[in-house]
Amino acid sequence: xxxxxxxxxxxxxxxxxxxxxxxxxxxxxxxxxxxxxxxxxxxxxxxxxxxxxxxxxxxxxxxxxxxxxxxxxxxxxxxxxxxxxxxxxxxxxxxxxxxxxxxxxxxxxxxxxxxxxxxxxxxxxxxxxxxxxxxxxxxxxxxxxxxxxxxxxxxxxxxxxxxxxxxxxxxxxxxxxxxxxxxxxxxxxxxxxxxxxxxxxxxxxxxxxxxxxxxxxxxxxxxxxxxx
Length: 228
Fold this sequence. Notes:
It is a single chain. With 228 residues, the protein is mainly beta. Helix content is 12%, strand content 61%. The protein contains one helix and twelve strands, in the order H-E-E-E-E-E-E-E-E-E-E-E-E. It has an eight-stranded antiparallel barrel. The chain is elongated and about 60 Å long.
């Protein structure tokens, strides 16, 4: 009975997928599906401390981080300008306001910084534009962000940070696809900004702490191949 139910469920799922594909094809024409992997470099140029941690001795210097991501890209239509969606799952290291806040305490010999591991899930809306063999992809979209874990270091002591909620933000940017081999080199530059502030539990402190609002430039380099 279980095998029969699984077979029926699989058949229903495949039928639904085929129907959805046909619906998209009828609505948009040709559907081109791609998937890829990319490396990411981030800066916290637009980040700012929350009022709870905005001490006079803080300096909002630019920090650098990095990470990697997986993405799926769907383009609809067969002309030189096509509507596109791109769903990404990005893991970012040393993200946020990060590692360059100095003089957290009074005195030039004291330094403090944060290092946060963040999971970002952007959903991009835009167009693919053929310019010769190169594809330009301007885009905009919402971002769901989860600060997973991190470390706060103040006066030489480390404090663990743990997730206490999710953030919502947005991003805007430009992607470039350059044909190489069976797929394309994928390059993009974007500005991302959280509409909500990052809240985390800080070791040895009671309750949830509101730390910073994230914003900055992200540049990525990857490779994508056509699935269909």
